[in-house]
Amino acid sequence: MKFDTKFGNYIKCSNNTSKILKKILLIVAIIYFLTFIIYITENKVIFLFNTSIICIVNLLLELFYRKMIRTNTSILHILGNSYVLIYSFLISLLTPINIPLSVLIIINIFSYILLKIIDKFLKIKINYICFVLFLSILYLNINNININTCSYLTMNVFLMLMMIIIIAFLTINDCLKWRIAISYFITLLVITSVYSLFFNINFLTSINFIFSFYNMIIGTFVIVDMKTTSVIPFSQIIYGIFIAIFMFISIEFLNYYWFYMFVLIFNIVNPIIDNICIYVKNKNSFFN
């Protein structure tokens, strides 16, 4: 395993990445179909159709890109060794349900091309899902369209326990940077608890969101992007804490799209934090 502290830390070992991707894809597929069975009570065919279109669009984008750089263009290889299906399933689950499919396709294409250019020339890896979600919610806000949130914004005890098991499974199999996920959930829980105590707000409302299926997916798969987050343990904890603070500020005082914008900004400053952590680690035995 190799990581580059100058331009951001991410897994580069192709063999390990392939194994990780297959396990994550399996889990995300299970989550997708559980969501489809439990929560999608209307327009099931449309939901599946939209997901299929997003999968095809992302697959064609990846295929075209690989042809350009003259690498393996086998569709089976792309499906098993890239984030195409993982990103497609998560985007289908997390984007506002009232965003037009045509707009979502344009956002996907624009995001893919722009982020590839940024990665190529600036050597900065941006969280693709967050970028798509940010543009999707921004589009609705600009056009004064109310954001129709999904029904799985409420807590479901069975799905919460299932997500805890999933987090444990992914952690054991080295498929999850668990420090980010745990620091995110703990920080969000502490902040909302203190806020509810001081301002006499119903604590159960905050708990309902923190452990909702939607937020559990965000905390496990979206902010913990294996490609764009640090491999340095202390930097992961800092990242998880700040992302939780950003989430709290967004849901209480701003709007969802601000949260995704904060994540994208943190992607850019991540290498700086990594270098600070490396410097502190070399100077202080406490971090060794």
Short description:
The chain has helices at residues 14-38, 44-68, 75-81, 84-94, 101-122, 128-142, 157-172, 178-198, 203-210, 213-222, 233-253, 256-283. It is mainly α and 288 residues long.
What does this entry look like structurally?
With 288 residues, this protein is an all-alpha fold. The chain has one domain. Helices cover 73% and strands 0% of the residues. The chain is built from twelve helices and no strands. The protein has helices at 14-38, 44-68, 75-81, 84-94, 101-122, 128-142, 157-172, 178-198, 203-210, 213-222, 233-253, 256-283. It is globular, with a radius of gyration of 19 Å. 37% of the residues are buried. Mean pLDDT is 79; it is low at 1-15.
Q: Count the helices. How many?
A: 12
Helix content: over 70%
Strand and helix order: HHHHHHHHHHHH
Radius of gyration over C-alpha positions, nearest whole angstrom: 19 Å
Mean pLDDT: 79
Poorly predicted regions are 1-15
Per DSSP E runs of 2 or more residues, the count of β-strands stands at 0
Kindly name the structural category: mainly alpha
Cα end-to-end separation: 19 Å
Give the overall form.
globular
How is the biggest beta sheet arranged? none
Question: What count of structural domains?
Answer: 1
Secondary structure elements and pairings:
Elements: H1 14-38, H2 44-68, H3 75-81, H4 84-94, H5 101-122, H6 128-142, H7 157-172, H8 178-198, H9 203-210, H10 213-222, H11 233-253, H12 256-283
